[in-house]
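fold-stage: in
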Amino acid sequence: MDSTTATIEIRALLDRACDAWNRGDGTAYGACFTADATDVTYVGTVYTGGHEIGRAHQALFDSFLKGTRLHMEIVDIRFYGTDTAIVVTRGESAGKTPDKLGKVATYTLVRDTSGWRIAAVQKTKRKPLMEAVSFKFQPATKPATR
């Protein structure tokens, strides 16, 4: 499989995850993950396995995250062989379209017989003020522009 086709399939997987979130469907959200996946939330909670990720998110969709939409922008996709990819995104879950995408997520994706699935995701809340201070007083900490 060429990287163009894989990129299209990866974007479709992340679109399915966003769609499941937006519908408040924990089962469909969990189905985007492998059976042994790891989901580290931005608050530090660790969920293991697509079933648990879906179950826990259903509880969140029914309460704290009710009516939210997952807004996601893919920053980078890198392939490691034909069946593994690292995807970096910016995103936010909110009831309305956010002004800024305040979280960064790093996804490890794998391809198996059923297609691409999320094997791991680590979400981090951005701290723009801390970034700005670091960049001002230590310019070498600023990432190179891609």
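fold-stage: in (second)
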Amino acid sequence: MPQFRISEAARLLGVSDDSVRRYIDQGRLPADRDASHRAVIDGVALAEFARENAHASPDPSAVSRSARNRFVGLVTSVVKDQVMAQVEIQCGPHRVVSLMSAEAASELQLEPGVLAVAIIKSTNVVVETPVAPLR
């Protein structure tokens, strides 16, 4: 299951590191410790928190594209059958839903809590995951 450090969670939520620490201290956002004893937040819990407390997030991608409508967020739901997948991403205050092949969703390892970027061009939505972690 994906986990995010406080600074990563802060960037995704569009708030300061201190705000995330306050959310943890207030019990609004659950946190654990990783092998290095740093505070980490479960991706699923962070995705749910992001959905409930939506703010815009910076784009972690280091690529240039002609599509200007890029929405960074956390996957909140993936429903797959044999052929197709419905992927829901909470991108700040925006909920983006993409229909794609089940094969593509599996290759991207899309599951709740995973960081993703929804790229919207015309009537199509392309979903990608960053190559490098958000650090």
